[in-house]
């Protein structure tokens, strides 16, 4: 505790001495103060360092302490509060890859006034590109942020908007093709089911689907168009529910998927948890809607 008090007092003396010096000498004393904060084996109270740094307007000390404590957003906010655009850009480039929420905050700051927007320069486009690539904000949120102060013009965000609109159009076109494909497959399956129920089936297979030998009686035919010797199925006359060995694995998979969907349909807690963690709420709702989580139970007598 005594060492901590001594080092804190020494830090205060360095800052006090620096405040009365010219630029060159001031940097020397501030460097001494920074070494105290950066020292791994130096016991110094961080709360006192923050307080003394604020009192002496020693921003490097404040930033170092916050960086050590992982308070990257606070570092960026300290630059924006002081309207230090160059410092904010430097902090964004340094901490942005690990603290992605800095990019939406930077977008709001860069478009807060004409002077700051001019100082930011091309950094605004870099922020928009990063937001778009990582999906940090929806396009509507970006537009709302840009229109809050009326500083950014359409020309500045034209490239971002055109890229976003083109990507949305492409996604819509892909979804429409996928929907058309699903509808075609569904209609074909419905026709196949109708034919199986209402039309006779002609079996013309001449060889066993299991052993490949010529078919002879007793023979077992399945509606999937596979035919077998009864002996190849280990089929006895008293078993009235045989299953095609070739199609059985795929059928079992479909049954398991359907069973899982039926079970998850009643797990509303899982649906709410998935919705809370999802970045695309509409997609999550659509997925769970397909599982039957919102289906109305059929009334039974």
UniProtKB/TrEMBL annotation:
Query: What Pfam families is this protein classified in?
Result: TPR_PEP5_VPS11 (PF23356), VPS11_C (PF12451), zf-C3H2C3 (PF17122)
Membrane topology note: Peripheral membrane protein
Q: Where is the RING-type domain?
A: 208-247
Which InterPro entries does the annotation name? CHCR_PEP5_VPS11, VPS11_C, Znf_RING, Znf_RING/FYVE/PHD
Keywords noted in UniProt: Membrane, Metal-binding, Zinc, Zinc-finger
Major place of residence: membrane
Q: Where in the cell is it found?
A: Endomembrane system
What family does the database annotate?
A: Belongs to the VPS11 family.
> What name has this protein been given in UniProt?
Vacuolar protein sorting-associated protein 11
Organism classification, top ranks?
Answer: Eukaryota, Fungi, Dikarya, Ascomycota, Pezizomycotina
């Amino acid at each position: 505790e005594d060492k901590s008090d001594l080092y804190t007092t020494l830090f205060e003396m360095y800052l006090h001495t620096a405040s009365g010096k010219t630029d060159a000498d001031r940097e020397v004393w501030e460097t001494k103060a920074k070494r105290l904060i950066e020292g791994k084996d130096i016991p110094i109270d961080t709360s006192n360092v923050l307080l003394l740094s604020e009192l002496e307007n020693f921003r490097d000390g404040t930033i170092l302490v916050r960086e050590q404590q992982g308070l990257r957003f606070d570092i960026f906010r300290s630059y924006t509060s002081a309207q230090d655009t160059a410092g904010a850009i430097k902090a964004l480039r340094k901490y942005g890859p690990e603290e992605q929420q800095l990019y939406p905050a930077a977008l709001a700051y860069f478009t807060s006034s004409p002077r700051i927007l001019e100082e930011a320069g091309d950094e605004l486009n870099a922020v928009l590109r990063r937001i778009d690539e990582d999906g940090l904000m929806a396009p509507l949120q970006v537009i709302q942020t840009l229109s809050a102060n009326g500083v950014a013009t359409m020309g500045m965000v034209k490239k971002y908007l055109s890229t976003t609109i083109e990507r949305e159009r492409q996604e819509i076109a892909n979804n429409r093709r996928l929907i058309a494909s699903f509808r075609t497959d569904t209609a074909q399956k419905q026709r196949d089911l109708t034919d199986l129920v209402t039309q006779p089936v002609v079996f013309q297979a001449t060889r066993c689907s299991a052993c490949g030998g010529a078919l002879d009686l007793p023979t077992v035919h399945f509606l999937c168009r596979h035919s077998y010797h009864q002996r190849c199925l280990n089929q006895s006359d008293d078993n009235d529910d045989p299953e095609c060995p070739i199609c059985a694995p795929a059928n079992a998979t479909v049954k398991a998927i359907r069973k899982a969907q039926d079970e998850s349909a009643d797990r509303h807690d899982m649906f709410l948890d998935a919705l809370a963690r999802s970045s695309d709420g509409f997609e999550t709702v659509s997925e769970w809607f397909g599982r039957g989580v919102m289906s109305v139970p059929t009334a039974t007598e």
